[in-house]
């Protein structure tokens, strides 16, 4: 067989060109270099701003993409940045994102919904870089409150305290009488530390309890809640007395007190009015009698008068009939 003659303008030039293009397409894509993203500030808060900067700073890049996700998903693209500079917004752009030199992404007016993963993809003429970073937006915490299951705990009973705070609180600590509490066999904490359980409650467990919450931008402590030890379990409810019954009890008590007072006064007056005649014999009464004639020495004529005192005799007087009647 003879050779097939080559004719100018045949199909070979087109075949060679197609093979060249196909070969270039089948070449492996340049390897993606890991990219580190640095947040400034590292703990941004609600209402503030944050910058996400690729490190090391890319040099001679053609363009870069930013995504609001952990992967380079087209639907989550925030923007495309060209070093001209120029910015082309994507479907995940909120109006608060801008890019700058070094492919740095700036987000202003942060909200809690901005919390999530962010990914950057950097294209150069010879390589591609890819990196992701989690962004956490914090809010300033309000003062927490403590809710106990009871404020008077029976001896050996169980006390449960709950710290009510925002999900933005990263840490929850408990205090008794102003000192931090360390968990032990009787003091238990829930996995998130928001619930404290005190078992076998005793006098030493009585006092004030507080919870302290914190995150990178704020720390707050609750007001003290006082817990006491109950003397005994609460009694079963009893029916109350009617108003009429209570009034009758009060009046009866007052009447009884008045009667006792009158009786005491009567007995006291009776004792004071008793005279000696009722308790003893008659009181003797005495009278003076003139001296008996011839008694004593006889004065001699011419002698001076006797200056010695004259005594009279006292003898009991016999009461007459009139006095007897007066009695």
Short account of what is shown:
This protein is 17% helix and 34% strand.
- Going by CATH, the homologous superfamily of the domain at 32-135 would be Immunoglobulins
Radius of gyration: 58 Å
**How would you sum up the major sheet?**
6 strands, mixed
Low-confidence region ranges: 1-28
Beta-strand level of the residues, as a percent range?
Answer: 25-35%
- What class would the helix/strand composition place it in? alpha+beta
- Provide the helix percentage: 10-25%
For this structure, the CATH topology of the domain at 32-135 is Immunoglobulin-like
Q: Major sheet: order of its strands?
A: 1-10-9-4-5-6
From the N-terminal CA to the C-terminal CA, the straight-line distance is 190 Å
Beta strands, count = 22
CATH architecture of the domain at 32-135: Sandwich
């Amino acid at each position: 067989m003879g050779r097939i003659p080559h004719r100018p303008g045949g199909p070979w030039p087109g075949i060679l060109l197609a093979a060249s293009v196909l070969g270039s397409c089948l070449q492996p894509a340049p390897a993606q270099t890991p990219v580190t993203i640095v947040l400034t500030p590292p703990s941004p808060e609600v209402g503030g701003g944050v910058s996400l900067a690729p490190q090391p700073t890319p040099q001679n890049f053609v363009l870069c993409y930013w995504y609001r996700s952990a992967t380079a998903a087209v639907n989550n693209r925030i923007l495309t940045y060209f070093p001209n500079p120029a910015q082309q917004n994507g479907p995940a752009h909120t109006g608060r994102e801008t890019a700058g030199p070094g492919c740095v992404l700036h987000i202003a007016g942060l909200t809690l919904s901005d919390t999530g993963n962010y990914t950057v993809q950097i294209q150069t003429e010879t390589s591609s870089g890819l990196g992701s970073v989690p962004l956490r937006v914090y809010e300033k915490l309000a003062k927490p409150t403590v809710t106990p299951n009871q404020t008077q705990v029976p001896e050996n009973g169980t006390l449960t305290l709950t710290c009510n705070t925002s999900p933005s609180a990263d840490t929850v600590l408990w205090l008794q009488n102003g000192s931090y509490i360390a968990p032990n066999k009787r003091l238990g904490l829930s996995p998130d530390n928001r619930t404290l359980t005190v078992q076998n409650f005793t006098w030493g467990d009585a006092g004030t309890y507080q919870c302290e919450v914190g995150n990178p931008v704020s720390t707050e402590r609750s007001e003290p809640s006082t817990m006491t030890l109950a003397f005994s379990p609460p009694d079963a409810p009893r029916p109350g007395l009617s108003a009429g019954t209570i009034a009758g009890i009060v009046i009866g008590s007052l009447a009884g007190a008045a009667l006792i007072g009158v009786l005491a006064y009567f007995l006291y007056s009776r004792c004071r009015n008793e005279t000696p005649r009722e308790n003893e014999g008659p009181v003797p009464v005495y009278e003076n009698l003139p001296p008996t004639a011839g008694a004593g020495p006889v004065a001699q004529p011419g002698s001076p008068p006797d200056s010695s005192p004259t005594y009279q005799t006292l003898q009991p007087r016999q009461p007459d009939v009139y006095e007897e009647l007066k009695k």
